[in-house]
Amino acid sequence: MPTDLPNLLTLSRIAAIPLLVGLMFLRTPVGDILACAVFSAAALTDYFDGKIARERGSFTAFGRMLDPIADKLLVGAALMLLAGMDRLSPLGLLPAIVILLREILVSGLREYLAGIKIGLPVTRLAKWKTGFQMGSIGTIVAGNSGASAIMLDFLPVSWLGEAGLWVAAALTLVTGWDYMTAGMRHAAAEDGARAAREGNRAG
């Protein structure tokens, strides 16, 4: 049910996006640190919704459908805000592009595989990727201005965030390739089965 706690946590990730946008549009140190807090809290729900669902055995079709959508909406919105507000350096923009393209790739693969009733399980490496990705984006959202709001302006926060984004992008390439090869393998098997059926009919 959509009202189950894990599903409510998933929905909260989507609900957090307008608040994140509004806080970042303030363009103030306090706004940046609050935006980081909102993003971080939303990112944590990705861990807790799955944990609670496993503990309660309350997996639902609604949750399986919405969970990856909520993740992609949150990450996509944050990266577009950072890019649009010039909060990413030219070098920082490159891993952001890689991450967004990978999300589109995996979404397309999931849609295709769902059509032939095959799931695309989340790997352990993909979970590490998500951790680095969420942590680095949250750090960049806070930025140097957010750090100054809590008297940590001596830390190169934006630089640290972009370094983490490069790590996330590297893991993104590895996991994206794994998903792509899995999709191609299933596509080849489906084409082979179709060719065999057509050959049998022709015979």
From TrEMBL:
Subcellular location(s): the record lists: Membrane
Q: In which pathway does it act?
A: Lipid metabolism; Phospholipid metabolism; phosphatidylglycerol biosynthesis; phosphatidylglycerol from CDP-diacylglycerol: step 1/2
Q: Does the keyword Oxidoreductase apply?
A: no
Q: What keywords is this UniProt entry annotated with?
A: Lipid biosynthesis, Lipid metabolism, Membrane, Phospholipid biosynthesis, Phospholipid metabolism, Transferase, Transmembrane, Transmembrane helix
What InterPro entries does the annotation carry? Answer: CDP-alcohol_PTase-I (IPR050324), CDP-OH_P_trans (IPR000462), CDP-OH_PTrfase_TM_dom (IPR043130), CDP_ALCOHOL_P_TRANSF_CS (IPR048254), Phosphatidylglycerol_P_synth (IPR004570)
One biological-process term from Gene Ontology?
A: glycerophospholipid biosynthetic process
**Protein's membrane topology:** Multi-pass membrane protein
Coiled-coil zones = none
Q: Which GO terms describe its cellular component?
A: membrane
Q: What is its main location?
A: membrane
Question: Which EC number(s) does UniProt give?
Answer: 2.7.8.5
Tell me the Pfam families matching this sequence.
CDP-OH_P_transf (PF01066)
Reaction catalysed by this chain?
a CDP-1,2-diacyl-sn-glycerol + sn-glycerol 3-phosphate = a 1,2-diacyl-sn-glycero-3-phospho-(1'-sn-glycero-3'-phosphate) + CMP + H(+)
Q: What class of enzyme is it?
A: transferase
Does the keyword Transcription belong to this entry?
no
Drop me one GO molecular function for this one: CDP-diacylglycerol-glycerol-3-phosphate 3-phosphatidyltransferase activity
Report the family membership.
Belongs to the CDP-alcohol phosphatidyltransferase class-I family.
Q: What is this protein called?
A: CDP-diacylglycerol--glycerol-3-phosphate 3-phosphatidyltransferase
